[in-house]
């Protein structure tokens, strides 16, 4: 499956139909689903009808007239791409007349195209070239003069691809891909006849236009009019391997197309069940960080963070790592050390890190970055439903009638899924957006939210309770569903609570900032509009009431009967590629893989038997507790795989103090990240292109990551962890990640039927994959909740302790932007900086005017925790009293502003609510200057290389 070519069947599959149709094509009987096009039916038979405007990624268009066929009993020569099959139809795809017609059509295309095939970058990878050969075109009667293209210069503005209008045949495939697949509507056809041309947003050029560089247009282009710069520089690829993207939680699969040992391009795989052949700018193009000059390829050590790094051999680095952890444990005790797993690494690597800590260090001091993003999802959904994961697959959105997006910005954070959501919205589904900021989904081409509820940051629970008030008091609850599937007594208690007058939309409007009429209308729509699906993100979880909000969402879904079938559900949009997997693998200090508590004797015995050691029954320290203990002098060493807690975790001052207090900090990563400023050992990591393994995306889909090239550092990340374990005296003898997955499956009930063999055979599996569901479970809780009866939980609104006042009158909230990823360590080392070279502070015109600020001014952003400076972006996307910024650039370090307040149940930080003040600034803050100086000193590397 890995080494694979793709066949384009010309048109999309027919809509799901139980009926089939039999017809004859070139003398053979073919049976296909009703509604299939002649072109697709022929392709399924093995006959490829010539085509240019047609592709199975787009709706049939019928403009090129190259795919003409003859149909017995029917006059003329219909286009096979737009003609559906009928019972008994007799079709001929080849005849002398058809050949003549096709050659004539192709001559017209070629007459308006330069015949420079031998020097063209797409030579050998060009559909126009292929189809000219397919129709037997040998001579062209009409000369090409290029006059129509002289006024249209080559557009090289986009950092990843070029557009050459001279090569364009105006087939409209790029325009249709932008419209139908991506939903940006950035391209159009200008002019008519031979003078027509493709233009981007009123002929602005690709970079300054509305184009989001998803690559759909490049993939659709049948010529070299749109072509990747890497193809021009390296040449056309000669082989491909299917792998999984290592950016967001959508989990797109790609064909990594190679020429020799060089990666030429990443092309979204149309068989990918998460992305269905689509991509975004990050997955499609932003992979150059793998070869960036900043990447560290040799292990390094130092005695003190004030010293420069010294490159050493792998043997010395591993031995020193093991020696330091053993020394510290001998001096300070077994629980004086711990580790952090990564949501960017594979399931297998994450499993090994938590195993290293539990089996090798003898404690449960392991945590993961999911602590600071989606730990409330685990708590809230396991409490109400019995399992800590989303309920649907991504295909489910195609069956939704009402979609509620709360605390998420899918077009920036999960763009490929957002495109699928927009497709459904253009088909007529209704949208409710609950967000303090006017995200793109509120209004974009052919998509308008039915309701935007711009709540004040921190009032999620109050808004959801007011919506539940409407559902209950207006008789909109699905009583039959509740009585059958949920605990009726618990529902009755909850219903009585939300029905109280003080929780009505009118009573809470002043608190939430949401007009009562708007909230009532949104609640009625969700309860009565058909299949209702809820998608949420970090704007829900990263609050002091994150777990309460997740449970309030679950309550609303159960009350309206929107659980257990396609088109409905509660769906967390995971931020990083393997957040779901890192949680599944036992990365929390209180849980083994599969979310089983460390205090459970039966579970612990299972792992003790497998690992041959006695395991600690006491939960370990969470990340914030590790830092607290470090400053208290009781926690002394930390192994960090693939995380940058100094930039990503809240209250940067506190994180820095905790790291500085430790005697040994080990960082395993690609670059000297911000956390490495305080590290004593650096173990260079490997990219997703350099290893085998699996990721689990936001829909619980487990997919293979396949090695495309050898690791530049010498080892895959799992191999490095195994070397450390062996140096500690553990008898680990894995030879391939598939063996680690076999161990995971043997110890984890929800992964019981997961194996590399099954993943190769089926492409992917969605856990739980058990004896009862060996192919996985796309939709959860179909016949009943995992916990038995659905549990309604009273989630009362409790104001955050973080309050505005005279000194800090504004509320800061944070989020992501499309072109950058998390702390930016990867994307900042690609051409994506062309779109987002710095973090900006969004501020409403009213607030800016009151402070004498103009767009682009440098401003000071201060909170009770710290101060930083950045440039202002004046916009009405945010409401008065609210400011917003991203956190992708360490120069800004937005988390120096955020506080230690966190979710009451999980310690997930309250990133989304920080009281701040904004004022004009003349330059960097004192902290920024000190930080830049410390970082420069901490990153010095001795010039001599390791022997």
Automatic annotation (TrEMBL):
Its EC number is 1.17.1.9. One of its GO terms (molecular function) is NADH dehydrogenase activity. SMART domains: Molybdop_Fe4S4, NADH-G_4Fe-4S_3. CDD domains: fer2 (cd00207), MopB_CT_Fdh-Nap-like (cd00508), MopB_Formate-Dh-H (cd02753). Residues 97-136 form the 4Fe-4S His(Cys)3-ligated-type domain. It comes from the Bacteria. NCBIfam families: Fdh-alpha. This is Formate dehydrogenase subunit alpha. It comes from Sphingomonas lycopersici. The lineage of its organism: Bacteria, Pseudomonadati, Pseudomonadota, Alphaproteobacteria, Sphingomonadales. The gene is fdhF.
